[in-house]
Each structure stands twice: as C-alpha cells, then as structure tokens.
Specification:
Layout (H helix, E strand, L loop, with lengths): L7 H9 L8 E2 L6 H7 L3 H5 L11 H14 L3 E6 L13 E6 L5 E9 L2 E9 L6 E4 L5 H12 L21 E8 L1 H8 L3 H11 L1 H24 L4 E5 L10 H22 L2 E5 L5 H10 L4 E3 L11 H8 L4 E6 L4 H4 L2 H15 L5 E5 L9 H13 L5
Parallel strand pairs: 1-12, 2-7, 7-8, 8-9, 9-10, 10-11, 11-12
Antiparallel strand pairs: 3-4, 4-5, 5-6
Helix pairs in contact: 2-4, 7-8, 8-9, 9-10, 13-14
C-alpha cells in the first residue's frame, strides 16, 4: 500500500500517467445535472446567473460542481475553465435578450451583425433540467458560414489572455482541465437542424465542409497553444457529436483524428495531459486514438447497450500506454440500481481494469439529475476501500 494519502489531483495525475496511486482514482461524470440538483436552486437561475464566466457554462454551475466533489468526496475533474479571448474593439458582440417563458423558465434570443449579415441564436432554459438550444447560428450553410467565420476572425487576430482566472477553483481536490471541442462537436453546436443537417452538409457539400473543419481546427490548435502556455493539468477534448452512434468512422478519421493528433502532440511536447471524451459507440475511434495519437486518457469507453466497448479488453490491449476512464452506465444502471449492485459492478471494473494503474473508476456520459446519492457514494467508497493498491 502507498505510504501516504494522495490528494485528488495527485491521484488523478498518477492514473493519467498509467501509474498507481494510493487507491483507484474515482471520478463519476456529474458534469452539471446532479450538482445543480444538489444546489437546491432552479436550473434556469443557475445557468442564467448574470455572473461572468469563461468556460462552457455558468459560474454558478461550476461552483456547484466543486461543492458536489466535496459532498461525495471523489476526485474532481474541473472542466469549467477557459481563457478569455482578447476581442478587438471592432469585433461585433452578441446582443442578448432574456424573457420569461409562459410554461416556466426563461428563453434567450441573441443576434449580432457581421459584415456578411446577421447571425442569431436562441436557448430555452427550464426550471428543472439543463437548457436546450432551440436556434443555432448556421441555418443556411453557404449564407451563414461566412458570417460565422468573420465573427471568429482570422489567425492574426486570435489572441487569448495569459492566465486562467479560476485556476484554483478545484485546488487539490482534482485536476483543472482546459476544454476544447472536437471539430464535429464544434460544428454540431453551430449548425441548426440537428444531426440531419450536420450529415447532409458532409454529404452534399464535402469540399466546402472540409474547408470549414480545417478553419476550426486551425483555430482550435491556436487556442490549445494558448491554453498550454497557461499550464492546465490537462486539455480535455470533447466529442459527443463524434460518437460513432451518430457519426461514422470515416468522418471521425477525416475531421477529428487529425485534430486529436495535432493537439495531443502539442500536449506531449508541453508535458500536459491530453484527454478525449467520445461517448456512445466508440470502440474503433478509441482504438485509432490509442494507436495513432499521443492521447493520454480516453473516456468514457461505454459498453452495451449505449456503447460498444469491452473496457477490460481495451485495458489489456492499450492499458500500458493509455489511461482508461469509465464506465458504469448512467441512463439506466446508475439511476435504477441498488447500492449493492453499484458495489458489485464497481468491484468488477476494478478487478478487470485497475491492475498496474492507469484506471479511473467512473461512469458513462453524465449521471442524470435523479441519480440516487447513495449510488454515487457507493461508487466512491468502493474505489477508496476495495480499490486500494498493495
């Protein structure tokens, strides 16, 4: 057994480097729903808190996550930080209007004027669940992409501040991640009409979409360089829309893999962890990343029925060089299992995946709002007791 107790951050970094800590690192994906529920405040108030924030969600949600880490006692992964972009004075700003919705909650409607025309977007905020985008900026590909590109600027204008203002938000309770979306995930956030229009773009406008994705990849690599200079614990590449449950291996190879290879190589050179999230069916994508990139951590490696990964086999094949994080099912098992069932499944994963280190006991993609606290507590307890390294 290790001679001293590690902090959450130290334990996660040990696992990320394929080493053993004092016990198995444990980091369930709580992201936002469980923390906001624990806060006791309506979801729309938490997301529309009026406070400045630099990451993908509000300062209140980020703070609720830290409180959830303390409450459950797990090893945190703070994905709510970013670097504010240094925006030229002449760059247009979003004009946002917040309205109350007649069915409860609120809506936001935003617009801005670019030199090529107007962009608009809208989001519905609910009292009891996370928000949904109801209108995204790109409605017509050929018309709206030049508008979005002009908003993003050109390489000579891409600048970010030097430091993370909330770098100490998680402290030693966990790792601080600088988050970047994979190209398909970024395009999904911009493209109105859901996955249908996303893939119609790929098929009907292949060369044009290649240019779009190459532009974003250049932007993302520039942002990764700025992030690495500020020294996060890891760069976390998010790719839910890159899942092979919705996309294909062909498009993953074409759009996402080159970006992953470029960013993970930069991370390796800088001595910073690179970490990729692709949920759902991801077996072939995970294999490609393990074989062809410098990625350090892959998650959540979901199994059947939502995914297609045999996590134990993946550990045997790639565990010598890649940390694996996963993979208790969230949308059924963690919601409906008993604590004793969570204990049994957690022990099975530890038996199959923790040997030699390089394993973070976790869940699949985000635990639902109504996940019983007792199940999360049991997951953490098993890692801290049964998962001790000797």
């Amino acid at each position: 057994m290790a001679s001293r107790e590690l902090t959450g951050r130290q334990r996660m970094l040990a696992a990320y480097s394929c080493r053993q800590g004092d016990h198995v690192a444990v980091c369930p994906d709580l992201s936002n729903m469980v923390p906001v529920r624990l806060s006791g405040r309506p979801f729309d108030q938490m997301y529309l808190d009026g406070l400045p924030h630099e990451g993908y969600t509000s300062a209140s949600v980020a703070g609720a996550y830290v409180e959830a880490v303390k409450y459950f006692g797990f090893d945190g992964m703070y994905i709510y930080g970013s670097l504010p972009e240094i925006v030229p004075e002449e760059k247009p700003r979003w004009n946002e209007e917040v309205r109350r919705h007649p069915d409860g909650g609120k809506t936001t409607q935003s617009s801005l004027q670019t030199r090529h025309g107007v962009l608009s977007r809208a989001t519905r905020y609910f009292p009891d669940e996370p928000p949904w985008d109801t209108e995204k900026p790109v409605k017509d590909l050929q018309r709206d992409w030049p508008r979005l590109r002009s908003l993003m600027g050109e390489p000579e204008t891409w600048k970010w501040q030097n430091d993370f203002s909330n770098r100490n938000a998680i402290g030693e309770r966990g790792v601080y991640a600088f988050i970047l979306p994979l190209p398909q995930d970024w395009w999904f956030a911009q493209r109105d009409g859901g996955y249908n229009n996303l893939f119609f773009d790929y098929v009907d406008n292949g060369p044009y979409m290649q240019e779009v994705m190459e532009f974003y990849s250049a932007y993302g690599v520039a942002k990764a360089r700025a992030g690495l200079a500020a020294r996060p614990d890891e760069i976390w590449l998010g790719g839910s829309a890159s899942s092979l449950s919705v996309s294909s291996l062909e498009y993953f190879r074409l759009f996402d893999l080159p970006f992953i290879k470029a960013v993970s190589a930069l991370c390796k050179q800088a001595g910073v962890v690179s970490h990729v999230h692709v949920c759902g069916k991801s077996a072939r994508a995970a294999e490609l990343m393990a074989e062809e990139s410098d990625v350090n951590v892959i998650e959540p490696l979901e199994g059947s029925p939502g995914g297609d990964v045999d996590i134990a086999a993946f550990k045997r094949r790639y565990g010598h060089r890649v940390c694996i994080k996963g993979n208790l099912n969230t949308y059924d098992f963690m919601l409906h299992a008993t604590p004793s069932q969570v204990e049994a499944e957690s022990k099975r994963l530890i038996d199959e995946c923790a040997g030699g280190g390089g394993f973070v006991l976790s869940t699949g993609d985000q635990c639902g709002r109504d996940t019983p606290d007792a199940n999360i507590f049991k997951l953490v307890e098993v890692a801290q007791t049964y998962g001790c390294y000797r």
